[in-house]
Please model this.
Amino acid sequence: MQQLVVRAVEEFLRQTYGDDLWLRVAGNPGDDDRLALMGGAFTSRGVSVRDLVTSAAAELGKTAQELLEDGGAWLASREAIRRLLRFSGHDFRDFILSLEELPGRAHFVVPDLGVPEINVSVCEQGVFWLTLPEDSLGWPSILGGIIRAMADDYGALGVVNVEGNVVTVGIPDDDFSAGREFSLVRDVAPGTVEAL
Model:
């Protein structure tokens, strides 16, 4: 599982900030026993994801929370993940309410990923409170980035705030922009349709 997460961090950093940043963060695979180059991709040898995120954030002049939020938005932009997330609700509010099901869905796809429980509640002003366990290191920030990206995807204006283990989401405008098209089926070739 660690190697899968390290690979995701590598892809995010390479695609978003370039190969040079990744090489500075990962070290020289020939000299550094933290990471080894195998088959064209780095694999973990005693390095923690926290160390990679902390180093990358320092290189970029960001906080680890900001970088994790960027990572969450990047994840939501991967078409396969985007489709699974969009399948969760016909509008942004439904999507937010369905986030309690996200850990179970993630477990079904990647059993060892360890997405923490998400408790969704709505306060009187219509603001959603998403509470994660206290020890959910990094997950609230990742979730905040996913929610920001999905608000854009749905065309909603979402005001997202991450503080500790709580993510709050306000939705001042459900129809702020056109959003991206989404269908439960997608065209794969002219005249053919493939199911999700």
